[in-house]
Amino acid sequence: MARKASYTCQSCGNITTQWAGKCGACGEWNSIHEESAEPIAVSGQKLSKRNRRSGVKLETFDGDEQIIDRYDTGFKELNLVTGGGLVPGSAVLVGGDPGIGKSTLLTQLAAKLASNEKRVLYFTGEEATAQVRLRASRLGVKEAQVDLAAETNLEAIIATMNEGDAPALCIIDSIQTLWTETVDAAPGTVTQLRATTHTLIRQAKKSDVCLIIVGHVTKDGAIAGPKVIEHMVDTVLYFEGERGVPFRILRAQKNRFGPTDEIGVFEMSDTGLAEVTNPSELFLSNRETQGPGMSVFAGIEGTRPVLVEIQALVAPSPFGTPRRAVIGWDAGRLSMLLAVLEARCGIVLGTQDVYLNIAGGIKIKEPAADLAAAAALISAFKNQPLSPDSVFFGEVSLSGSIRRVSNADGRLAETEKIGFKTCYLPENNTKKRDVTIKCQPISHLSDIIDLLS
Q1: Could you tell me which residues come within 8 angstroms of residue 179 by beta carbon, excluding any fewer than 6 positions away?
Q2: pLDDT tens track for 140-162
Q3: pTM, entire model
Q4: In 136-209, which ranges are E strands?
Q5: Quick one: CA dihedral 92, 96, 98, 103, positive or negative?
Q6: pLDDT value at position 232?
Q7: Which of 45, 155, 183, 312 has the highest CB neighbour count under 10 A?
Q8: Max Cα distance, the chain (Å)
Q9: Cβ atoms within 10 Å of 225's Cβ, excluding its own
Q10: How far is 84 from 90, CA to CA, in rounded Å?
Q11: 3-state secondary structure of 275
Q12: pLDDT lower than 70: segments of the chain
């Protein structure tokens, strides 16, 4: 049957029957392109032999449990993020900003697995093989027996995977460069992304190969292409970091074989990525002399406690509309906190420029950082430093009261290990604990103001 033309948004994957300048689903401009729609089976068409089969065999929850074998990546941090190592037959999607270190991490990973007598395939679609070899030489892994090819045709990649011994790991860098002959669309379009990803995942699960796919990200930090790609894979990892800062955070957004929101911390150097076994000491190692506007937050990233420094600056605004700038934290959360400080505590910041920064390039998402951020803002506004041996954690409500947070024991243990003396925390989190650190309960945000009086 003849194929009908359809129009697909390259940002969100929404399909329409006619072209428009603006996508009605995501609001993106100039993202709709014409693509050939795949033929759809007409009503009443004869079913295939597979569809005429009887029902499938059903099982119950109390069946035998299968122990998942994993490949040791050679990185303790990467093993932590993935839940213990790479699972054969799984599909992993890795995203991150350009130049953040995705290819560097995968080159080191491929070399470590190859050194353990595992066959590793590395397909690059954005670089020549000479460029990859140059990177391997710079990282000191040039002698690793990694099978390398610069190829973007999906059928050629599948044929290579079926040749010789089955590989343990197959790396695709990146999925936006692949194309298949069965789809009449340009590489990187939604139709090509969906088709190539589905075929690769099916081949990986059939051959019991661990598949790692590199994905580009949009200007908003999300992986480019339809969201269905993230649903298809087993694990989604984001590589985060700020330019000019050597720290890199590998965060698990989705993991069918381990915990989500787990992080691994790396440090970028001339010789590649090095693991950071104690992130708290790293993020606090370059602390300046405790001055106004600085506080330490005891946070939880995944299953591990991490101490980070929050920096705030409050200055009179020369313009009618004060500026609000935040790095590493939710801007909406900052606006809410400023409103609570003004309405409940009498701290008037409506005529002040406010800047908030999470030191070290890490991004904080949990609301437990409210108390530490408020302490830094109050300290900056009053131009009085907080105690250098104190840490903070707690969620601030709209009434100004401090709500309890989870995993207080882990936060306190990490605080004590680093050497801090006092922890300001919600009153509901101050039950008897086996720690020597002083726990100072905070019931309302105005209690922080009393500390600086």
Answers
A1: 152, 153, 154, 185, 186, 187, 192, 196
A2: 999 999 999 999 999 999 999 99
A3: 0.80
A4: 147-150, 169-173
A5: negative
A6: 92
A7: 312
A8: 82
A9: 25
A10: 13
A11: strand
A12: 1-4, 36-53, 219-221, 224-226, 285-289, 432-433, 453
Strands (E), 317-351: 324-327
Q: Ramachandran region of residue 188, left (φ > 0), alpha (ψ -120 to 50) or beta? A: left
The residue to which tokens 């795949």 are assigned: 38
Other residues' Cβ atoms within 10 Å of the Cβ of residue 277: 10
The residue extents of the domains of the chain are: 5-36, 76-277, 282-451
Report the b/e string of 393-418 with b at 16+ CB within 10 A.
bbbbeeebbbbebebbeebbbbbbeb
DSSP 406: S
Give pLDDT tens digits for 302-347. 888 999 999 999 999 988 889 999 999 999 999 999 999 999 999 9
Written as one letter, the residue type at 165 is D
Distance of CA 68 to CAs 84, 254, 392, Å? 10, 18, 40
Report H helices in 208-258. Answer: 228-232
pLDDT for 148 equals 96
How buried is residue 255: exposed, middle or buried, by Cβ count under 10 Å (0-12/13-18/19+)? buried
Angle at 262 between CA 168 and CA 109, to 5 degrees: 30
Q: Would you list the DSSP string of 345-360?
A: H----TTEEEEEEEGG
For residue 174, say if its preceding peptide bond is cis, omega within 30 degrees of 0.
Answer: yes
User: Interhelix angle for 370-382 vs 331-345, to 10°?
Assistant: 60
Instruction: Assign domain 76-277 one CATH number from 3.50.50.60, 3.20.20.70, 3.40.50.300, 3.60.20.10.
Output: 3.40.50.300
List of residues 6+ apart from 5 with CB closer than 8 A: 34, 35, 36, 37
User: From edge to edge, which strands make up the β-sheet containing 5-9?
Assistant: 15-16, 5-9, 32-36
For residue 310, what are the β-bridge partners?
Answer: 295, 358
Question: How far is Cα 356 from Cα 393, in angstroms, rounded to an integer?
Answer: 16
What is the CATH class of 282-451?
A: alpha beta
Is the separation of the CB atoms in 46 and 58 below 8 Å? Answer: no
DSSP one-letter string for 130-147 = HHHHHHHHHHT-TTS--E
